[in-house]
Automatic annotation (TrEMBL):
Protein name: Nicotinamidase
Enzyme class: hydrolase
NCBIfam families: PRK11609.1
EC number annotated for this UniProt entry: 3.5.1.19
Organism from which the protein derives: Mesonia phycicola
One Gene Ontology MF term: metal ion binding
Keyword Hydrolase recorded: yes
All residue ranges annotated as the Isochorismatase-like domain in the record: 3-197
Pfam family, one: Isochorismatase
Hydrolase keyword on record: yes
Pathway linked to the protein: Cofactor biosynthesis; nicotinate biosynthesis; nicotinate from nicotinamide: step 1/1
Similarity comment text for this entry: Belongs to the isochorismatase family.
């Protein structure tokens, strides 16, 4: 059984958003065009409280994109984004959400960030995504969304560790940092992940 996981296709990651991914909106029609090829579609949603530890404005004297240490983990300080129940946290208005069967929210704990759709960054708490996919009998998981080099990457990496055959749909995703993504591509392949284009489906 094949599942499609839409990672954080949210307004704040789109051009004009609080943490905009360049050309992030260009993936929306691609994602809409491939949905019919999957047995199951789920989505992740960044869903932060206002006092989230990853927000630069919650740290006196710190600037956006500075780093701090949290429980031994390096934390980038981001612009406040995807605050719970805000317009920025909503899915992009043109995304076809009718076929999404479940939404897994992440980053809800104010004390720790969660790039992956499976676990928080310390791997202390599961979102329930792995159990859900296994219960549905999913063996192959395809990932797309924003940003390729951060949340899509961490989600895909955890999927591989959970035993799923994992694919990145490259043209249905966009990176925040293109140079970083070029390094990450090699890591994905080395871990056993596969990188494809939407026309390969």
């Amino acid at each position: 059984m094949k599942a499609l996981v839409l990672v954080d296709v949210q307004n704040d990651f789109m051009p004009g958003g609080k943490l905009a991914v360049p050309k992030g909106d260009e993936i929306v029609p691609v994602i809409n065009s491939i949905q019919s090829k999957f047995d199951l579609i789920v989505a992740t949603q960044d869903w932060h409280p206002e006092n989230h530890i990853s927000f630069a404005n919650n740290h006196l004297g710190k600037e956006e994109f500075d780093t701090i240490q949290v429980e031994g983990i390096t934390q980038v300080l981001w612009p406040a984004h995807c605050v719970q129940d805000s317009k920025g946290a909503d899915f992009h208005k043109d995304l076809n959400t009718a076929k999404i069967e479940a939404i897994f929210r992440k980053g809800t704990n104010p004390r720790i960030d969660s790039y992956s759709g499976f676990y928080d960054n310390a791997h202390l708490k599961s979102t329930g995504l792995s159990g859900y996919l296994k219960e549905k009998g999913v063996s192959e998981v395809y990932f797309c969304g924003l940003a390729t080099d951060i949340c899509v990457y961490y989600t895909l990496k955890d999927a591989i560790a959970e035993g799923f055959t994992s694919y990145l749909i490259e043209d249905a995703s966009k990176p925040l940092d293109v140079e970083e993504y070029e390094k990450i591509k090699k890591v994905i392949l080395d871990l056993g992940g596969k990188i494809i284009q939407s026309n390969n489906l």
